Amino acid sequence: MNWLSSTLIFVGLVYYQLADGQTYTCSRPSRLIATNQTQLLKSPGRSSNINYPNNLRCIWNITAPPGMLVRFTVQTLRTERCCDYLQVRWDNSVVRLRDRRSNITFVSNAINLFFRTDGSVRLWGFVANYIIVNSTVGSYTTPPTTTVAPCGFSANATNFSRPLNSPGYPRSYGNYLNCNWYLTARPGYFVQFILVRLTTERCCDRLRVYGSFPYMRQFAGYVTRSTTVVSVNNTMRLYFRSDGSVTRSGFRGYFRETSVAMTTPAPTTTTPPTTPVPCGGNLTATNVSQDFYTPGWSSRYRNNLRCYWYIYARPGWQVHIQVVSVDTESCCDRLRITAPGQTYTINGRSSVIRNYISPANRFTLYFRTDSSVTRRGIYLRYQETRNNQIPTTPTIPPTTPEPCGTNYEVLSSEQPLRSPNYPNPYLSSRVCVWILTAPQNSKIKLRLSSFSTENCCDILDITNVLNRRVVELGGNLSSTVYYSSTNMMTLTFRTDDNNNMQGFEFFFSIATGPIPTQRPAGQT
């Protein structure tokens, strides 16, 4: 039969070849007919082993002859998680594939594909195949809705703990969830929610607790230690949201009524601003160093910002900018510092001090964010100067940023060891390791001066050279002293992606005199 021969029909498919002769893009829908021979379909650029181009809008419609079905299989897919995806429509269903996926099969009499990319990161793309079949066996199915863990409910909290889990837990939750749980206690009582465990896609799937103290808590990524949240009155709302890409096991928790309010003061930060930062404006540089923060620095900036600031110095003077701390989505959110003949792009994560001096008396700052991941933002200082000189006025204390881990030789005199950016809040998603080494047959004395971290999730482990636990620290702690059991000690500091606090300050030296009995492991 003629229709069994391998046939591939392109209707209105347009390829644009760029100067390098390799990169292609697409326009207009393409009609493909499945046959009894397996045929390949690749994202633009994949046939030349290059990444897909930016700003694609590709459409393919795959059909089968009458009485037959199309089996479409995505063999391998790799795209930018936030912004690039392959959308598959079949029967009355639709799914968007992004990030890393493989071996996903769809069976229907017609398959509609839409491949979309944005203007930032370019990755590998996808390779798929299609063929005619006469059975729907093996087709992708939408995960069934679970009745054990519904997507939201309203409930009265009692003095008995009741479970509250993400839909499907411990199996993966579904895509595009918007779940609300409304919890109410008796007048004069409070709602207590205990989060036992959480595993979600860090960038895009999150659990938020409203009506708590402090005013809102957000959890995303991995939470492996029980965390308790208490409402400020007798009501609490939990909101769980997932996007259309990666799904994980979700969260497990309990809620109950309590008569004890959370009276501990909300975590504070030593870093301004105390009032909202405007999105743009005119600023005047003087001979005194001034702070500048992107909007939302004390928590997170918003999506889709387009902010311009103009920093002016006196005629004949220059503007000096010192970038102190950067925490943005590296692909898509950035600050541009421009002047005639100069453009500097600031993005990603860094605590390295960087200095810029304008050629004339003005700098323009442009802060742009996209619609996906948000982080803390950017902190810098500005001041006027002359003759291309970096001002001698101190910009931030300390003048040398604290390292995120290093090796120290322990001496008889005390030396400081501080969290990065101390006494300002430490940065998110860090793993810092400090190794202290004293002379042979010596012990190390570690004196705690100040300690303030997020109790659930930002933890400092202190171990000796045999990796036996000495102590695990988290929360707000008072001054105390720890001793090593050998001549080496290791400090490992791990932080999650939110609720950064002041951090810690220790002083270490060679221990002299009798060594007190070491406290048991885990006791603080």
UniProtKB/TrEMBL annotation:
Residues 1-21 form the signal peptide. InterPro entries: CUB_dom (IPR000859), Sperma_CUB_dom_sf (IPR035914). Residues 26-133, 151-258, 279-385, 404-511 form the CUB domain. GO terms for cellular component: extracellular space. This is CUB domain-containing protein. The lineage of its organism: Eukaryota, Metazoa, Chordata, Tunicata, Ascidiacea. SUPFAM superfamilies: Spermadhesin, CUB domain. Keywords: Disulfide bond, Repeat, Signal. CDD domains: CUB. One of its GO terms (molecular function) is serine-type endopeptidase activity. It comes from Ciona intestinalis (Transparent sea squirt). Pfam families: CUB (PF00431).
